[in-house]
Amino acid sequence: MIKKLNARNIDAKECFYGHKACGGCGESLALRLALKVLGEEAYLSLPAGCMAAVSFIYPNMAFKNNAVITPFASTAAVATGIAAGLEALGKEAPLSVGFAGDGGTADIGIQSLSGAIDRGEKFIYICTDNEAYMNTGIQKSGLTPFGAATTTTPAGKAIHGCVTEKKNMFEIAAAHGITYAATASIGYPEDFLNKVQKAKECDGPAYIHIYTPCPTGWGHGSKITVDLAKEVVDTGLWFLAEYEDGEFRLNRKPGDFKPVADHLKRQARFRHLSDEEISQIEVMRDRKWEKMLKNWG
Amino acid sequence: MSEFAFLNGNEAVAWGVRLSRPHVIAAYPITPQTKAVEKLSSFVQNGEMDCKYLHVESEHSAMACSIGSSSVGARTFTATSSQGLLYMSEGLPYASGARLPIVMMNANRSIATPWNIYGDQMDAMHVINSGWVQLFVEDAQEALDMVIQSFKLAENHDILTPVMINVDGFVLTHTYEKVDIPGQELVDSFLPAIEKAPHLMNDQDPMSLCISAGNQHYMEFKIKQHRDMFKVFEQLERIDRDFEKSFGRSHGGAADGYRNEDADVILVTTGSVTGTARVVVDSLREKGIKAGLVKLRLLRPFPSDDLYELIGKASAVGILDKNISFGFEGTVYTNVNSSLLQKGYRGRTFNFIAGLGGRDITKENIEEMFSALLEQKGETVQYFNMGCAL
Ligand SMILES: Cc1ncc(C[n+]2csc(CCOP(=O)(O)OP(=O)(O)O)c2C)c(N)n1
Ligand code: SF4
């Protein structure tokens, strides 16, 4: 039985500090929390993206762990290469972990992620989802939600923000028959920590998709990062779920959703949305939940 | 105990890799390299090699996996060709900049479009500035031996630079030759287990790799890398001498001369075409013509000193290129010409472009090249064996 983690028994050690992320950065919080569970022995792979940019600035290295910046498309490939190398050198059960943003995961890195899951090697992949390419200046990614304004999908007169919906990365990972997959949010840190713990213990590839608000890209106060990450689950716009032993499971089934409009309007990227567009977002949410409740119960 | 076998270049490379005992191989198939990766997989599947073979989904990932495994200190091999090399090219400077001693076979092949699977050296020239050692071999035996030597070279702590062994597509990869496969014990004593470089990832003193460096530091990293590259000449020669002591054969250092000492005219070649050129030089010599040959084994680092020493006295030099840098000339020519000029060479230089897309380079073509050199006639850049007038 895996020991449940909570605020009291969490490791006090820091493995990620002195980095240059913006105040209130959700991604850096996700990394910091994950490393408390993964520990110093984890080997880390990070592609281009904010987290690589803020933590490897010579001569200041922010990771206490072994860590490497990977070519943008190849977080999972480098991570499995590390695992294979360590195993071949005789290290028992090496812990190799990739951290990539939504762009590095759902767009450019999806091929190498798919290939690595398919090989069945033991490694952990954590997608820190801030719903856009932040490091290059807030452009649309495959995980940018409908309606969000980014610098490549601005709230224009003809087109009102992003017109596509988020790619279902969690389900895509699960569809590979992966050993373990989960969604998480930094608004529910204990849930996240325990999912990382599960991923660490599991014997095969594991994928965790964590929702990580970005004050700079989303246009919200740095104080409310965690708040927004909790609210998004409570509004039903994001969900906490797991895929294990071939089965999906919802970890939280909210009775009533909190109002979507209030949540969205706290972020500059959604401020242009009309009431009609907000209702459209609600319809999409309800459709998604209907499916999830039916199929994953 | 060594044994003779009838092997093609791909199989010879696979044997060289097997004998070098890598920890990890990550490769993706592409003609004309496929037989090498198939052979290596079968060695692994049959338990004849104790090694992790990663069945990656692309060349980009083959290079990325290699970066991962090499960064923890594992001896790592990969192989590719043509479009595959181009596809992995993003990772090449990562590997060299992080000073990872990966060894790769590149089966030289043309680049699309038009699509063409046959041999030329466009692919290698495309990535000549990637910070990899670029080595060209003449035959299957040299290919096998150079895999073993390349690990020793790349893993040397003064070098720590990845090595690309270029093996001409089809001409070498698919042609069978009698090859001496050295015994495992002999190879083990020549090539000891990899010694982990201090900058690599390790449990005792965790490292950050492939870091970023701003304008106040980047240049120093790059100049250090550049300077270390020059150490390859000396180490390669030393390795080759040791190799000769153990294995009884030598392949030389960065460049090799053939009947060049008193030659009036010299042809500079890379790779398999050298064999044909040797035959032509011999026949010209029989006719009393003072023809000679210089085989460039290394294009990076570029052996300027050796080259001048081998060529210096000839009145004209031809450089055979199986590639074009569009809008200019052949890449080997650019390099040789520039370096000879710097050394004060006074003779004329010609660029002979031939063999693109697997077009034959016949003995007659090479004879024509020599007559152009003897008469010092024609344009500086000349094309050979053209099928139709353009
Ligand atoms: C091959 C390649 N293409 C483009 C880039 C430029 N680039 C660097 S970071 C980045 C976006 C990263 O976005 P994401 O993965 O979502 O991470 P975030 O910055 O949001 O953490 C891009 C496009 C690159 N580094 N490499
Ligand atoms: S831009 Fe966003 S993701 Fe990037 S460091 Fe700042 S807050 Fe974090």
Distance between the termini of chain B: 55 Å
Q: Briefly note the CATH topology name of chain A.
A: Rossmann fold
| Separate helix tally of chain A | 11
How many angstroms does the end-to-end distance of chain A come to? 24 Å
Count of helical stretches of chain B: 13
Set out the fold topology.
The complex is a heterodimer of chains A (297) and B (390).
Chain A: H1 26-38, E1 43-47, H2 50-55, E2 56-57, E3 60-61, E4 66-70, H3 75-88, E5 96-101, H4 102-107, H5 110-119, E6 124-129, H6 169-175, E7 180-185, H7 189-201, E8 206-211, H8 215-218, H9 225-234, E9 241-244, E10 247-250, H10 260-265, H11 275-296
Helix pairs in contact in A: 1-7, 3-5
Chain B: E1 3-8, H1 9-20, E2 24-27, H2 34-45, E3 52-55, H3 59-71, E4 76-80, H4 82-87, H5 91-97, E5 103-108, H6 122-126, E6 133-136, H7 140-155, E7 163-168, E8 176-181, H8 184-190, E9 208-209, H9 218-247, E10 255-258, E11 265-269, H10 273-286, E12 291-296, E13 298-300, H11 304-311, E14 316-321, H12 331-343, E15 348-353, H13 363-375, E16 381-383
Parallel strand pairs in B: 2-3, 2-4, 4-5, 5-7, 6-7, 11-12, 11-14, 14-15, 15-16
Antiparallel strand pairs in B: 1-8, 6-13, 10-12
Helix pairs in contact in B: 1-2, 1-7, 3-5, 7-9, 10-13, 11-12
EC number (chain A): 1.2.7.1
Keywords (chain A): Oxidoreductase, Pyruvate
Pfam families (chain A): TPP_enzyme_C (PF02775)
